[in-house]
Amino acid sequence: MASAQPIPYQRVYVWEFPVRLYHWVNAVCVVALGVTGYLIGNPLAISYSSEAYQQYWFGWVRFIHFVTAFVFFFNFLVRIYWGFVGNDFARWTNFIPFKRAQYREMVEVLKVDVLQTKIRGLISLGHNALAGLIYFLSFLVFLFQAITGFALYSSMSDSFFPRLFAWIVPLMGGDNPVRQWHHVFMWFFVVFVIVHVYLVFYHDYVEGRGTTSSMVGGYKFEREDEYKS
User: Fold this and answer.
1) What is the CATH number of domain 18-42+51-190?
2) Could you please report the per-residue DSSP string of 57-110?
3) Would you state the pLDDT for residue 125?
């Protein structure tokens, strides 16, 4: 009996360093903003024998939230820029579906992710069409959170940058509506992170392309007999 021939794979450099750096900085920021934001909205009742001003733990929570917000925002601006100058896998054309083939790929990915079917069509080596669209929508939420967050911060800061967003508060009807919407979309991040981590590991399993490790080293593995780049 003839031995089975090994499946031909080739190593492809997909995620450039700026994309990987953005991803991990963004991941840390999302976790830090989520935790501190939740505490700001629902502060813990901690009792001390000393005066409150001698503790300042809530002040540190707010400080971490505000500093992380600046890092998050400018990290996001770098990713927007890299969407125009990066390689083919980083381009904005991967996030906004313009082609019929991208819509067919979305249907195929939905079958795989939801119905747990076997992959039969062609799935892109970088972001698949469905993931790209979801990331694009998440970028809009990122922008909304940054704008509303700086709008809330503008009332307590004399800095030039937060004051640029002060007009958002009267536009949305005051501090309370802005704060409410800012809090609601925080839960988008919670759901997004859970689904994102699950699908990364799941697609790593069903595709066998090194999806998980690719965001560390940048390389994926392409099966020449089945997939396209």
Assistant:
1) 1.20.950.20
2) HHHHHHHHHHHHHHHHHHHHHHHHHHHHHS-TTTSGGGTS--SHHHHHHHHHHH
3) 86
